[in-house]
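Raw record, unedited: PhoX family phosphatase
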Amino acid sequence: MHDDQITNRSGNRPFEDILRASMSRRNVLKRGAGLSVAGFFGTLAGKNLLAKVATAATEGTSTLLAQATPTANLLNFTAVKIADSVTDPKVPSISPEYQYEVLIPWGTPIQPGGPEYKGEPSKRPTAAQQAKQVGIGHDGMWFFPKGETSNTEGMLCVNHEFGRNSHLLGKDAPESAEDVRLSQHAHGLSVIAIKNVGDKWKPVASKNSRRIHVNTPVTHSGPVAGTEFLKNSANNEVKGTVNNCANGYTPWGTYLTCEENFNGYFGDSTYDADTETGTWEPNDRQERYGFSSTGFGYGWEKYDPRFDLSNPAYVNEQNRFGWIVEVDPMDGSQKPVKRTALGRVKHEGIAVTVGRGGRAVGYMGDDQRFDYCYKFVSKANWRSMRARGLSPLDQGKLYVAKFNENGTGEWLEITIKNPKIAAEFKTQAEVLTYTRVAADLLGATPMDRPEWTTVAPNGNIFWAMTNNSRREETGPGSPLAPNPDGHILEMFDTNNHTGTTFTWSIPYIAQETHAAGDETTYSDPDGLWADPDGRLFIQTDGGQKKDLNNQMLVADTNTGEIRRIFSGVASDEITGVAITPDRKTMFINTQHPGNGDPEKTNFPAPTDGVTIPRDCTIVITRKDGGIIGS
């Protein structure tokens, strides 16, 4: 569930304004009927190849040079036509060279033999049952193979971003504490053992399979842990993770789940809708994070004091959310850990790579209109830190991006040592708790809802800018005003991800695909994954043109060609990407199919007009056993 509000009142120069000046000065993006989308992509690909070769020469490596050479056509499958995907919007459509199966829909037992919910319209799970079942709102995920190399068995971590009351509870608002617990237990994430048995994937028993939800004990680490910003006079245990959107994974084999629109679950229990009054009044920092008296309408504050903004005993409960949470998929005895050095924003996801000196580097988007792009660089080599019992995600530097008109940019360190920040904050813990406010002070560039990030093997970083219909001027990184369909930004970071400068370009503008043919049209890019061969998988979340459902496309970043490989069902979102080591099996998700309305779809159940549709994972393979996307 997206927060449509704008909370950034900093007045910082927006990306679209920078881009407009850049286009005017350099004429980088020439718009005209004679310029094809593929030609535009190819032009930018050539520019980026020069940068890759130059970097490879500087670093004395041969890998980048090899990857800088365009390969043969990477897209050897038949695109899903619009006509194929709109004939029956109640079921998905897939390229004829591919096939799919359904895995772990909402209500699947975490352990085989446990309680199950199959979408019966006359009932819902109990809160206790839901705590033992796969949640709702499938989103970001990753597959951790058994023995690190298995293509047929492992642990699948799946985020559960949100479930509307009408879908999850069968009513518009909770009527009891039991209703709230059910809702809370459907959020969070599932860690579930899966195995390919007889050419079909299914959950299997494992001591490490578990649900992590809003009432699961968790802990904080890093600069904010143990500080006043996380303490309540109620002295309640730190519990839970919520609105788990996109994700990341680390070189040391752990899963990172990201808390996005956490503000929407808080509200004022004293608020009277008729008089529009209550006892809670937001301060400037709470407004910057979008807190309001009614939140997103979940109603948790009425039955759970943790989420009641008007309850002084839980004044800092809100600060316990908005972090990136690390989970060990192979050890169910470990508490999830919220890594506070990564900052507190509406985290859409994190793409982790290894930079110069073996440092762990994470690229993160803050998904709200006019918010920012961030980067974290660990203090030292990640292997060395772990050998000393230190987490690479607890010590390091956090940066926010500032884009320039000439296609360059700067990473501005978010630190109490900066006089601009020191004038407003007292400690680094306070800075990280209110990261958005600190980034405002530094003059970061407001963007068009930065969502997923992915780092290609050649080192380039792709950012999904989903949309911004409220943008009034163009600028650096924001090519259109308004920008209702979104775009994808490409970044090349200096010093092998550890520098403080970068270059940028915009190779993918969704609006330009609508006239390019049925195979390419898309809007609202969201999920991204770059494979080792130069393919970019693009998933969508929003209003597609030409009556299309949300979809997954594959782009050849060498040629710019795009083909649709999968189309979902009515009113869903296509999201989440995970892959087996051999890249012959891909897992994606359909989220909120039909928005929970059985008249729109009953997927994954057969169409009957009655069964409640359920979020689920889709397992995709090529019929000839080839690489996914080829």
